[in-house]
Amino acid sequence: MSASKTGKFGASLANLRSLESLATRDTPLHRISPTIKIAATFAYIVAVVSFGVYDFSGLLPFAAYPIIVASAGEIPYGLLFKRTLIALPFVAFAGTANIIFDRAPVELAFGLKITGGMLSFAVLILKTLLTVSAVLVLAATTPLNAIASGLKRFGLPCILVLQFVMTWRYLEVLIDEAERMFHAYVLRSPDGKFVKFKDWPMMAGQLFLRAYDRAERVYGAMQCRGFDARRIHTHNIRETGGEIFGLILFAAACAALRCFNLSAAVGGIFS
Amino acid sequence: MHMADALVSPAVGGAMLAVSAGLVAYSARKMRKDFDPSRIPLMGIMGAFVFAAQMINFAIPGTGSSGHIGGAVLLAALLGPYAAFLALTCVLVIQALFFADGGLLALGCNIFNMGFFGCFLAYPIFLKPMAGNFSNPVKVLLASILACIVSLQLGAFCVVLETLVSGVTQLPFGAFVALMQPIHLSIGVVEGALTGLAIVFVYRARPQIFLECNAQKSFSYRAVLGSLLIAALAIGGGLSLLASGDPDGLEWSMEKVAGTAELESSGAVHGAAADVQEKTSFLPDYSIPDSESAAGTSVAGIVGSLITLAAALAVGFALKPRTKRTRVCV
Q1: Alpha helices in chain A, H assignment, sequence order
Q2: Interchain pair A171, B51: CB under 8 A
Q3: What is the DSSP annotation of B152-191?
Q4: pLDDT per residue rounded down to tens, chain B (330 residues)
Q5: What distance in Å separates the CA atoms of residue A212 and residue B42, rounded to the nearest whole number?
Q6: Measured distance CA(B219)–CA(B124) in Å, rounded
Q7: How far does the CA of residue A12 sit from the closest CA of chain B (Å)?
C-alpha cells in the first residue's frame, strides 16, 4: 500500500511537470495572448454549462473545440483524457441520483426509450468532459508566467499575482526537499520500505522547516538580484486586433451553437 | 469539496465569482496597507504546502469515500486571514488549471466554500479567541478542531445549495445534506486535529512566525463583520432570487419530458408539474407566506442570513474568554 502511495505521489509530480513542459512549446496556438485564451475558455465553459439537462445532441458539437485545439497545440489525447477522468467521481455521484430519481421515459430514435435520468446523467458527464478538457488545453498551451501576466492584465491585484507565481515556484522547492528527505530515509532503512506510518509526522514537520528555511534563502537570493515585491515584472500583453476579432468570432460561434442544434440539423439532412 | 464546472449553472457560477472577486479585492486592499515583504516566502511555501496536502486523500471509515484537508484554518493561523484567503485562492486556481480539480466557472464557488468560512469566520470567531497566542497546545488543538468542523460544515452546506440551485441533479435536498454533512464532520475532526498539531509544532519550532503575525495590527472585527454581512446578504438575497427566478432549465426540461414522453395518464403530468414546483422552491419554508414573488423569497433569504449570522456570533461570544475586552460592535 505504501509503495502505491509513493507511486501516486510521484505520478502527481510528474503530471505537474508534464503540462508545464507542454506549455513552453511553440505552436501558433501557444503564441496567442493569454488574455484572449482565458476569455475564450470562459465563453466556451459558460456556453457548455448553460445547456439544458436533457440536451445531449445540442451539446455534442462542442466536443470539436478541445479536439481541434489538442491537435493544433500538439497535446497528446491520452494525457488529456486521463486528466479529465480525475474530475468525474463527484460529478458521477451527483449524476447517479438523476438515474434513481428521474424515471420519466424519454423516447429516442427508432422507438428506443430511456429514462430522463439516464439522459441527464449522460449530459452531465459530457459537460464535465468538455469543460475540464477546455481548461486543460488552456493550461497546456499557456505557460504559467503568461497566465500570471494575463491575470494582471485582467486587473487582479498585484499581490494575488505574486502569490500565484510564488506558490507554483515554491512547489518545486517543496518537492525537491521532499525527494531529498525520502531518498535519505529509504537509503537508511534496512528493509528498503517506504516511510513508516509512525515517522510521518516527524517527516512532515521536518519537511516544513527545511522547505521554509530554503524558501527564505531563495527569497534572499532573489532580493540580491533586485527583486522588489512592489514592482513585480510580468510581460506586457498587447492583444492584436486580429486576436480580438477572433475572440468575438469564437464567442459568437459558441452562442450560435448554443441556440442552434447542429446535430439535429445534420441528422435532418441525412434522414 | 471541489465543485466541477458541470455542476454549476452560469448564473450561480457568475454570482459566486463576483462574491469571491470582491473578497479577493478586499483582502488585497487590507494587505497592501501594512504589507511586510519578508512574509512573501512564508506565504509562498505555505501555499505550496497546502497544495501538496490537498493531494493526499485519506479514507473516511464507514463511508467508502475519501476526503482531503482544506487548509484554510491552518493558513489563517500562520498568515493571518487576508493573506490566507489569497493563498488559498491561488491554490484553487492552480488546481483548477493544472489538475482538473474544480473548474474555472466554479472557481468562485470553490474559493467561497473552502476559503471564506475558514479565513473570515472560523478564524476570527473560534480559533483566535479560543487559542489566544497559540502557546497552550490543548487550547490550540480544541480550537482548531472546532474551527475546522464549523468551516467545513458551512462549506459543505454551500456546496449542497449551489449544486441544487444550479439544477443539475435530482438529488433531494434532505438526502444531499444527509450525505454531505456527516462526511464533512469526520473530515473536519481529522483536519482539525492535523491543523492543531501543525500549529503546535510550528509554534515550538519557529515561534517568530507567530510573533510577526501577532505584531501586525490587531484583527479588525468590524471589517470582518462588515464583509460577513455583505456576503451573507449577497448569498441570502442573490441565491434565493436565483432559486426562484431561474427555473428555466428545469422547467424547460420538464416540459420537454412531459412533451416528448407519451402521456400515459394525466397523473404523470401532474407528477412532473408537482416535481417542478418542488424543485423550484426546494426550501419552501424560506418563502414569506402569501408571497409567490421572487422578492418575497429574497427577503426571506436575507432575513434568514441575518438570523444565522446573529446565531453564529452569539455562539462565538458565548465561547469567548471573558477576560478579554471585546472590540466587536454590531
Answers
A1: 2-23, 28-31, 34-49, 56-59, 64-72, 77-85, 88-101, 116-141, 144-153, 158-188, 200-224, 241-259, 262-270
A2: yes
A3: HHHHHHHHHHHHHHHT-----HHHHHHHHHHHHHHHHHHH
A4: 788 888 888 889 999 999 999 999 999 988 888 778 888 889 999 999 898 888 776 665 554 455 677 889 999 999 999 999 999 999 999 888 877 777 889 999 999 999 999 999 999 999 988 888 888 899 999 999 999 999 999 999 999 999 888 887 777 888 888 888 988 898 899 899 989 999 999 998 888 888 665 555 445 555 556 656 665 665 555 555 544 433 333 333 334 443 433 333 344 444 444 444 444 433 434 444 444 444 444 555 555 555 555 655 555 555 444 443 333 322
A5: 7
A6: 8
A7: 8
Interface with chain A: mutation pick from B90, B92, B119, B210, highest number of A CBs within 10 Å = B90
Exposed e or buried b for every residue in A108-127, given b needs 16+ CB within 10 A? eeeeeeebbbbbbbbbbebb
The three three-digit cell numbers of residue B187, written as one number = 473530515
Looking at domain B5-219, its CATH class is mainly alpha
The amino acid at B24: V
Alpha helix positions (H), B206-220: 207-215
Q: To which residue does cell 428545469 refer?
A: B250
ipTM: 0.82
Smallest Cα distance from A8 to chain B, Å:
9
Q: Which three three-digit cell numbers place residue B139?
A: 487550547
CB contact under 8 A, A83 and B100: yes
Residue from B85, B97, B248 to probe the interface with A (highest A Cβ count within 10 Å): B97
The alpha-carbon gap from B5 to the nearest alpha carbon of chain A, in Å, equals 6
Domain boundaries, chain B: 5-219, 220-330
Q: How far apart are CA A86 and CA B49, in angstroms?
A: 21
